[in-house]
Amino acid sequence: MPETSSPTAPHLLLAALGGTIASTANAAGGVAPALGGVEIAAAAGLDGIWPDLQADFTQVAQVSSANVTLEMLFDVVELARSTEADGVVLTQGTDTLEESAFGLWLLNDSGVHIAATGAMRNPTLPGADGPANVRAAALTALSDQVSGLPASLVFDDEVHDPRFARKSHVTSTAAFSSGPVLGAIGWLSEDALHLPHPPRTPKSPFAGLARPERLSKIALAEVGMGEPEETLDLIAGSGFAGAVVSGVGGGHVPEELLPAVARLAETMPVVLASRTGSGASLTKTYGYPGGEIGLLESGLIPAGLLDARKARIVLNLALSFGLAPAEVFAGFA
After folding, report:
1. Among residues 115, 114, 138, which one has the least CA distance to residue 47?
2. Among the four 111, 247, 279, 328, which has the fewest Cβ within 10 Å?
3. Residue 173 known to be catalytic
4. 281 and 189 within one domain
């Protein structure tokens, strides 16, 4: 059932990282992040929903999407752990929003929901979508319906499970989807959250762990037609702690790459994902050279439900926390 606004004044924390939603014109002739959380929230008209809203603002960073890091996400989680707010909205650029939302889903053990959002049209453009997205994210973060979920990705009045959400268009305001099968878990309408498909949320393997002193370096290699062996050989000799191979189809590589894959797997944990971006990587269908059966028998770890980018985050955290990657990925089968 949709819920109406609470009779008591809610408490919201808005954590800002920059991005298109915070961008204004600059001397270079384009736009760049400059606006703070107070300005972003003011444009959303939140006082029209909650006249007595208590809102706190923290500028975690002021960067473009490509410069968001896992370290920043740890900072956001620490804010959630220490806040007295009922919900948290994270604003940032959309290019890495899917990764941030998933990282927060893995790390947020605060009990306070974090709704991640951003904008496709910067504030200087007609029809800028940032205010509406912040409004929807605030309604989501402050809803009792998400109390059991660590994080969500809220965009274009849709609520997505971060495990499956991905940016699927360069410029559309409806840029985020959750694959051709799953879809959004809910939506916003008339300032109310409708959440008919709340996901089952298993406990994250990283919940409750102390922040690691240092994060691991993980390589990501997407396999294409005629991929040369040098791609993987360079990774093997470059000081990475682990690698994700984004294979074609269900998780396959050209037969000519098999020696390089074997060499790579001898030096570090290697996760096998599918470059399609949705569905689960296969484990027992294709037995030809370069098929997933032989690759897994040679020691590669299946990514399961995770696409390559999300698998890279999980492998990074597993190694950084000192956990066995195969055991961690078994939870995403």
Report:
1. 138
2. 111
3. no
4. no
Query: What is the identity of the amino acid at 240?
Result: F
146 close to 110: Cβ distance less than 8 angstroms = no
CA 302 to each of CA 103, 108, 160, 284: distance values in angstroms, whole numbers, following the listed order: 19, 24, 24, 11
In the chain, pLDDT over 70 holds for what percent of residues? 98
- From 134, 161, 194, the end of a domain falls on 194
CA dist 177 and 165 (Å) reads: 6
Q: Are residues 190 and 326 in the same domain?
A: no
Helix (H, G, I), strand (E, B) or coil at 131: helix
Could you tell me whether strands 186-189 and 158-160 are parallel, antiparallel, or unpaired per DSSP bridges?
Answer: antiparallel
Of 20, 83, 94, 140, the catalytic one is: 20
Q: Give per-residue pLDDT as tens, 189-237.
A: 999 999 998 998 889 999 999 999 999 999 999 999 999 999 999 999 8
Coil vs helix vs strand at 29: coil
What is the maximum span of the chain, computed from C-alpha positions, in angstroms? 65
What is the number of structural domains in the chain? Answer: 2
Whole-model pTM?
A: 0.94
